[in-house]
Each structure stands twice: as C-alpha cells, then as structure tokens.
Amino acid sequence: AAxxxxxxxxxxxxxxxxxxxxxxxxxxxxxxxxxxxxFFSFIAFGLDxxxxxxxxxxxxxxxxxxxxxxxxNTPLIPYTxxxxxxxxxxxxxxxxxxxxxxxxxLLLIKKYRNIVVTKFKGTKFFKAFKASKLYKLYSHYxxxxxxx
Length: 148
Known about the structure:
Shape: elongated
Low-confidence stretches: none
Number of helices: 8
Order of helices and strands: HHHHHHHH
C-alpha cells in the first residue's frame, strides 16, 4: 500500500518524502514497495486526466477556499504542491483507494505464501539450500532479529 501511494503521487513532493520515511521507519519491505511504486507510476501516468478532473473539483469548491488559503500560508505545506490539480487529484484518489489496496495485498500475500512458498519449500533446490552454511547463517540471524 505504501508503494501504491508512492507510485500514484508525483515523486518530487513532500508527501512522497513522508511515505519514503514511513517505508524506512516501519520496516516495510523496501524492494516490494519500490517495485510496486514503479508499477503504479505507469498506471498513474495514464490516470492523470482523471486526477486532474478530481483535483479541479476539490480545489474549485468554494467552501474549501479558506482551507486552501490557510494551507498555502502555512510553512512546509506548499511544498506538497497541493494547489496543482493533478497532485490534489492523485492524493484524493490514493487516500480513498489505499485501504482497498492494503486489503487486496494482504489477501494476495496470504495466497502466495500458501500456494507458491509451500511448493517451493518442497523442491530439491530448497532442500539443498537449507542444508548449506549460508542458510544456517541466515537462520541464526533471523532468530536474533525475528519479524513481528
């Protein structure tokens, strides 16, 4: 889900930096997050017209003008580039879709672990790798710093 947010929002912005720090701080799998971000960045490019339309609606709502003015006059907030229609639209769409992406990701990961990983553990290659010193070193390291 963090990779989804990183891929759908423009890269050089404050919110991307915050998501990047989140990935590093909470031990999110770095490679998976960036592969996901890479994949979703191509999808986001195609969805820019939708993001522009959503952002234009949100930014041109008269009742939100005082909020936008306050945000623009607050330090650091203008670095999010929220006043850009594509940035605002991608932020709104991403915030609404992130819980769904998170739940679908959990479901897919559980299925992957049950189907693919169990088949892989039964292969001769994995059994030979499990007997190696490298795997024993990894197993020792993993017992020192277990995943929660």
